[in-house]
Design goal:
There is one protein chain. α1 links the parallel β1 and β2. The two termini are 21 Å apart. Strands 1, 2, 3, 4, 5, 8, 9 and 10 form an 8-stranded mixed β-sheet that branches. Strands 6-7 form a two-stranded antiparallel ribbon. The longest helix has 19 residues. α4 packs across α9, α5 packs across α9 and α12 packs across α16. It folds into 2 domains: 311 residues, HUPs (Rossmann fold), CATH 3.40.50.620; 70 residues, no CATH class. It is α/β, with parallel strands linked by helices. The relative contact order is 0.16.
Length: 392
């Protein structure tokens, strides 16, 4: 049996995601497993819809099994996000291929660049670039280019960049996964507008923010749109205003000393965040005020969310310690039989498996409880523990 894995956010699941799953079916894969961000996303925010809505949309489009990428790993940098996703898919014990979108559909080029980034010459070149005050992304590309001409250009593509991180994780973890880059269809990552009926997730989110769920019509599969309409009617869409209030209210309660304990906070950044939150009326204003040439918006968004969720340095294991099943086609549940980590549909049961499982489950619950305040119709606590898996 050939089993492909995809690491995704599906925020929201759209036509391009459905096309990718269709391409894997055409290539002969018998099962498709999705490792999907749960209650937080990599850009440092809350997904536009709850996990089960996005997971069911993936099943309706042809996926077989959806496991959670727990929130404390989903809102990490690209490196941490990729490492956690690779770790989970590899731990399932049956996934042989990792498929991902890329601007450069050349597996060997991506693997070669990953090996470069894992080497000591690159590490030294990166330190030199950062010492000169360059932002991390620019320093990374410049360091890679200085060692291998052309590597910087490859890393300039956002999908290539994440693909290289997947390859790095496969190599570093010695995971039994073969990378399979799939050319992106239609609009580029973050591009405004649509191309041939395909639009980026960020563009769809902006349309929804302006027009409500109708903004997604025609850009997501019909089955997904029906799910989104139901979710919107139930008040489950994320509210930007509610997110701002929830985030800022938590951050205003923290002292610089408390902020200093949050993972990723260093070089006095706690004072910059503490000063910015005193006057910022919105999350965007907070990021704008705290931003410097060294600290880009993306890093500040993740730091702010980590602080709101009390994700402290060294408090969690490096990789997720369990496999939490969110959704599945019933025949695909047999895939869990080869799992090398505790695996199941109940987060409460998984949390009882070990201290690490309990710590990550607690962090997952913190994100779910925060997300419940950020909906158009705020909900109560405990959703991570009470939600029922989607079984088709």
């Amino acid at each position: 049996m050939r089993v492909a894995g995809i690491i995704a956010e599906y925020d929201p699941f759209h036509a391009g995601h459905a096309w990718q799953i269709g391409q894997l079916r055409q290539q002969g894969f018998d099962r498709i497993v999705i490792c999907m961000s749960s209650w937080a996303v990599q850009r440092g925010g809350i997904p536009i819809l709850p996990p089960l809505v996005r997971a069911q949309a993936a099943l309706e489009a042809g996926a077989d099994l959806v496991i959670a990428l727990p929130a404390p790993y989903a809102c990490r940098s690209a490196e941490g996000f990729a490492a956690a996703g690779v770790g989970l898919l590899n731990a399932l014990g049956c996934v042989d291929t990792l498929a991902f979108g890329a601007e450069t559909a050349d597996k060997d080029a991506l693997l070669d660049t990953a090996r470069l980034l894992l080497g000591q010459p690159y590490a030294a070149a990166l330190r030199q670039q950062l010492a000169g005050g360059a932002p991390y992304a620019a320093a990374r590309a410049a360091a890679a280019e200085s060692i291998r001409p052309g590597a910087g250009a490859l890393l300039a593509g956002p999908n290539n960049n994440l693909g290289v991180e997947y390859c790095k994780a496969i190599l570093a973890q010695r995971a039994a996964l073969t990378p399979l880059p799939v050319p992106r269809r239609g609009a580029a990552h973050g591009q405004e507008g649509e191309t041939g009926g395909f639009a980026s997730a960020s563009w769809i989110r902006r349309r929804i923010a302006l027009r409500g769920i109708e903004g997604a019509r025609g850009l997501v599969p019909p089955a997904a749109f029906a799910l989104y309409e139901q979710a919107a009617a139930a008040g489950l869409l994320t509210s930007a205003r509610a997110f701002d209030l929830a985030l800022l209210s938590r951050l205003r309660a923290l002292t610089p000393e408390q902020l200093a304990r949050i993972r990723g906070v260093n070089e006095g950044l706690q004072h910059r965040l503490a000063d910015a939150v005193r006057t910022a009326p919105t999350a965007r204003a907070l990021y704008d005020t705290a931003k410097t040439r060294r600290y880009a918006h993306a890093r500040l968004r993740r730091l702010a969310l980590d602080a709101a969720l009390d994700y402290r340095e060294g408090a969690l294991p490096g990789l997720p310690p369990y496999l939490h099943v969110l959704a599945a086609r019933r025949p695909a549940l047999e895939l869990c039989g080869s799992a090398q980590l505790p695996c199941g549909v109940s987060l409460a049961r998984l949390m009882r498996q070990s201290e690490d499982c309990a710590a990550v489950g607690k962090a997952e619950c913190a994100a779910a409880d925060f997300a419940s305040l950020c909906r158009a119709r705020p909900a109560g606590m405990g959703q991570a523990l009470t939600q029922k898996p989607v079984i088709l």
